[in-house]
């Protein structure tokens, strides 16, 4: 026992100590990491072993909005950004605001994508990269990322002035953890620190990798700028713009150009102002270049938080564990993006108005309705990735025609033949899963014929729901056609070799440009032969018809679809002739780009083209059959939807209901003129 | 200033305090949660808001082996287990040991699956559920899970005696976080606590849900047993077996049966011994039953860690946020399981020998080799899920024949017709992605014809790699055939309606059972018509042949494949006749189940059947053509592989290399007898 009197003083001191300690551990509700856990740039590249030092998981307040900036230009990089964003969304639990600095191509793609993706609690803002170009174009740069690689330097000026902090990401980064954990590291910045960066995981900046290798100046191994925490308002206050320009100008007196784009300049600035940088744990930017030293980081770390494919070889880079990282990347590449439409619980995240309307419409559907699947499918908004592959829009020409069609994976093998038959522009919509989109990409890259064509635009409509939304897919292809006319066809037809030239000549001759409202009919035929020598002229085709190896399309199974084209007259015709609409007529036609859209209510099999042609007629298009035009259907396996149609009375019943509703809408829209369709359909 | 002399004592006391405090926070390297964070079962159902109380993320030591036990029986539950395991694997960073208590069906499926999955650092042990049945079969149980629902009670006795702790999971649980975080909660157990459970998120155990509703006794709302932390050795020491049996026996004196299987008994035991239970945070078992109160938990919580579909309606359950949870579930349901073959960095995880051999073989491939893709594809071990759907093996019959074929998604529409043409057992292998497997499931469930058939076994071979591994897929179907004979066919053929009966009669007549080595040839025909009236007899077929609407199969494009069948003789034949092998012969045959396997080196298009028939001939099977047998090929789109074959000289070159290697192996195996194939092939 201690003598009386002392305990009081001791007790008070102990209480004080206890409070101090508790304060240290529990202030703001979470234990802070010990100082020994802080990564130190000059030390070594290693991660921090869990057994040595446990960093508690710091998190920003629930529902705090996190800001992410990404520079993105071109078709390929747009695809990359989507994979990055998928990995972000997979783990995130906070609302996100994406700030995308884009060229026109990327903006076009990503605007459509995010608009149709409708991810709750994700806001997207676009900034025009071309406007920023003058600010960096004076810097000679040898990096493969080009001018866009330098744009991260100007973000403090380009982003809204009230935006205080942002995470900046390269497009070749994949997340494997919640980005909120990265955002939380802002809380570790000292008052002076403005840029959070992970140390470089290569010896590049140490210099002397080869004779005369003279890198830009850097602190030790320098820092990698694939993942940056930018404290924007502090940067603006510190005069960042002047600072980096001055540094770059000075260095460029002795160095010919940047080798690693913005990264060289960031490192040179930091070399001069080491207090600006907050080093981040290596796991937030595991760099997978060829001679990466990243292994030291990730073998020790329990978690890998973000992976950076910072070799020009990207996924083809070779290192010991690349299979692991590739799997991680493929996980998000092939992940069904529709599943990322998950809402955030407990964070108020008002939906955009169209998403709200959609929710209400879906909520009003009756699950017991026999046609529930049809109703649901009609309402589904499909994610759309336009110009999935590089595409060069055709030069504006007054009579040009784009071939418009849609397909899914089971028709990919038609594409090469189609390219051979149609030398003009095409707008093709593909109905694919995320994983299939990658298969499609590989398919095109492996094909010399397809990869040589820059005038074929491929638009991916992502699969969702049990029925094939054929008209929604067609509408995507149609909306993306850039020429004044479109040839609306199906993917299993091959047009006559001369059709593209012939159509343009016909459009000119018939003076369709001067307001004549016409749909030019391309007569459709079919062959049942797997291997088939395609007729090189109308005379050849007539010979094959006579020999019985080619027929009018579906003349056995569904003669009404094409009978009005009048094949007998076509045989003899020398000039275009007008034909009249009749029930169930569904010819393949050439029309102006601003023709009516396909009615999206027709999902699955049946009446999808018939309704469109009916609407053309209701809008008083004349149907003119072209005497030298033809297209031939090749044999294929019947689709699943046609099998369902044949086997299911419910299916046929629902289709009938759709038809009836369509006709009602037609009457409402076109009034008495539409009566003729009702009458015609009522006849036996 | 304190007077001299005192500081020493004060300092010593303070140091002591400091050490105590540090010990409290940092013992075993991680801060422990404050007592205020502990969930309390009697309190309320809410989670713990991050702003009130932040539990640091506790983790077990890196590389600690975690044990998970799951009870699983039947085809459907086996599929569910795989989804659960995929969610576990996705987030895990520790080696896992799965303890699967299974019936014979589930064991057969899951053994094959894990064997072919080859996930590093995952060990699987099986325990026979049927052996455990007597221990629980005396308990009357009304729950839909049946007897298997009670088996969690006997795990302390059934699992190895040296297994100290285990996480027990229901098959309808989906993880959304690293299971190591759950495992780490064992560290929070007091010395008395033996069972970790999440409180029930429904009012069931409060009673009075309806008139005469009398649930089993429970503490308050009771606990849900979908996720359990079981401290096995403490349970064994505490006499668990006697304890639960005694409780159950006593309660069954007044209650007629368990309503919720094991959960009723666990709760009754805990009611009597409240000190046994360690309540777990609600986020580890978010219960999605119809009237769930789970919302109180997950709206407050930042993270949902594990979701439990504990309604008999499963994914069809209705609650406000079910779309969110469904998306989470679909994420793993459709996730490409191949991507989960990621190794664990920094944890020594020796691969199984076959995985090691495979790695070495893959490492030896030359990426510059023009046929690299072929080599890689041949070596690929595909994940295989046998009997993906409910299947009733055929009763043993001495002359029974199973139809064996393989297909991918684009041939699903053949299945109904095939079922109508072949009333006997079938073994069909499907080459699918994980997502396609779900589409396939829905397709079968929507089809009356298909869902009525219990004698058709569907085996899923998961897609991996660019070339179609046709012979590997065929071998899976062949290996799973359970009758003494197999009819080896392709999916786009429809057999004569009488073929099944006729084959069995022929096998009996020809006395194939008594050692006669024969391959019965089923002559193959083709039609080019979409819609086709299938001949009901040989006479009908001959009429169609004469009319030119049916031909011998590929007699225009590839006559060598079937010419040796001698169609002219077949027209007249009344009895089986023998024909000789010839180059490129590839008839459809009936052979004993133990026939040679298909050579897996043939991937993609070409020579896959030819090589098999050659090997039958090398093994001296006689080819006997059956006079009344026929099968007819329906038209379909050419496969992508045939397109690649036609367009790529490299592809054809690689196929030639495969052929040459196959012939060399044949010579090595069959010696001089195989010379005839070399000679035959060298002839022009």
UniProtKB/TrEMBL annotation, chains A, B:
SUPFAM superfamilies noted in UniProt: Nucleotide-diphospho-sugar transferases (SSF53448)
Name by which UniProt lists this protein: LARGE xylosyl- and glucuronyltransferase 2
Family of this protein: In the C-terminal section; belongs to the glycosyltransferase 49 family. In the N-terminal section; belongs to the glycosyltransferase 8 family.
One term of GO molecular function: glucuronosyltransferase activity
Keywords of the record: Glycoprotein, Glycosyltransferase, Golgi apparatus, Manganese, Membrane, Metal-binding, Multifunctional enzyme, Signal, Signal-anchor, Transferase, Transmembrane, Transmembrane helix
Signal sequence extent: 1-36
GO cellular component terms, semicolon-separated: Golgi membrane
Function text: Bifunctional glycosyltransferase with both alpha-1,3-xylosyltransferase and beta-1,3-glucuronyltransferase activities involved in the maturation of alpha-dystroglycan (DAG1) by glycosylation leading to DAG1 binding to laminin G-like domain-containing extracellular proteins with high affinity and in a phosphorylated-O-mannosyl trisaccharide dependent manner. Elongates the glucuronyl-beta-1,4-xylose-beta disaccharide primer structure by adding repeating units [-3-Xylose-alpha-1,3-GlcA-beta-1-] to produce a heteropolysaccharide. Supports the maturation of DAG1 more effectively than LARGE1.
Pathway(s) it belongs to: Protein modification; protein glycosylation
Catalytic activity of the protein: 3-O-[beta-D-GlcA-(1->3)-beta-D-Xyl-(1->4)-Rib-ol-P-Rib-ol-P-3-beta-D-GalNAc-(1->3)-beta-D-GlcNAc-(1->4)-(O-6-P-alpha-D-Man)]-Thr-[protein] + UDP-alpha-D-xylose = 3-O-[alpha-D-Xyl-(1->3)-beta-D-GlcA-(1->4)-beta-D-Xyl-(1->4)-Rib-ol-P-Rib-ol-P-3-beta-D-GalNAc-(1->3)-beta-D-GlcNAc-(1->4)-(O-6-P-alpha-D-Man)]-Thr-[protein] + UDP + H(+); 3-O-{(1->[3)-alpha-D-Xyl-(1->3)-beta-D-GlcA-(1->](n)-4)-beta-D-Xyl-(1->4)-Rib-ol-P-Rib-ol-P-3-beta-D-GalNAc-(1->3)-beta-D-GlcNAc-(1->4)-O-6-P-alpha-D-Man}-L-Thr-[protein] + UDP-alpha-D-glucuronate = 3-O-{beta-D-GlcA-(1->[3)-alpha-D-Xyl-(1->3)-beta-D-GlcA-(1->](n)-4)-beta-D-Xyl-(1->4)-Rib-ol-P-Rib-ol-P-3-beta-D-GalNAc-(1->3)-beta-D-GlcNAc-(1->4)-O-6-P-alpha-D-Man}-L-Thr-[protein] + UDP + H(+); 3-O-{beta-D-GlcA-(1->[3)-alpha-D-Xyl-(1->3)-beta-D-GlcA-(1->](n)-4)-beta-D-Xyl-(1->4)-Rib-ol-P-Rib-ol-P-3-beta-D-GalNAc-(1->3)-beta-D-GlcNAc-(1->4)-O-6-P-alpha-D-Man}-L-Thr-[protein] + UDP-alpha-D-xylose = 3-O-{(1->[3)-alpha-D-Xyl-(1->3)-beta-D-GlcA-(1->](n+1)-4)-beta-D-Xyl-(1->4)-Rib-ol-P-Rib-ol-P-3-beta-D-GalNAc-(1->3)-beta-D-GlcNAc-(1->4)-O-6-P-alpha-D-Man}-L-Thr-[protein] + UDP + H(+)
GO biological process: protein O-linked glycosylation via mannose
Membrane protein topology class: Single-pass type II membrane protein
Primary location: Golgi
Keyword Transferase part of the UniProt annotation: yes
Cofactor(s) annotated in UniProt: Mn(2+)
InterPro entries (UniProt xref): Glyco_trans_8 (IPR002495), Nucleotide-diphossugar_trans (IPR029044), Xyl/GlcA_transferase (IPR051292)
Localization per record: Golgi apparatus membrane
A Pfam family this chain is assigned to: Glyco_transf_8
Classification via CDD domains: GT8_LARGE_C
Glycosyltransferase in keyword set: yes
Source organism per UniProt: Pipistrellus kuhlii
Top-level taxon: Eukaryota
